[in-house]
Amino acid sequence: TRLNCIRQNDLKSLIAYSSVSHIGFILSRKLTLNYLGIIEAFIKIIAHGFSSSSLFLLVNIINSKYHTRIIISFKGLINSISKFNF
Fold it and tell me: What is the Cα 4 distance to its own chain's centre?
């Protein structure tokens, strides 16, 4: 699934494939059957929920403003959005 992330053109599918990859990491921690591994997996599940939902929200905002989700069409996007420019 990591290689599928590299080949994606759409932002939402990129986030979806990376979510599947993260779930694989979480599952590997839970399969250790170690107490700390299970606690770490639970913390990663919570963090993953917040980060993935935030990324989908950001993609929705960008899609509603620019009417596209194709990654190649975002050249120079950081210069046009002053909120994200530091």
Answer: 13
Extract the tokens encoding 73.
């069409």
What does the radius of gyration of the chain's CA atoms come to, in whole angstroms?
A: 16
Per-residue pLDDT reduced to its tens digit, 37-82: 889 889 999 999 999 999 999 999 988 988 888 888 877 766 666 6
Sorted by where each begins, the domain ranges of the chain are: 1-83
Cα(2)–Cα(8) distance, integer angstroms? 10
- Are the beta carbons of 4 and 55 closer than 8 angstroms? no
Angle at 44 between CA 9 and CA 26, to 5 degrees: 75
C-beta atoms surrounding 6 within 10 Å: 8
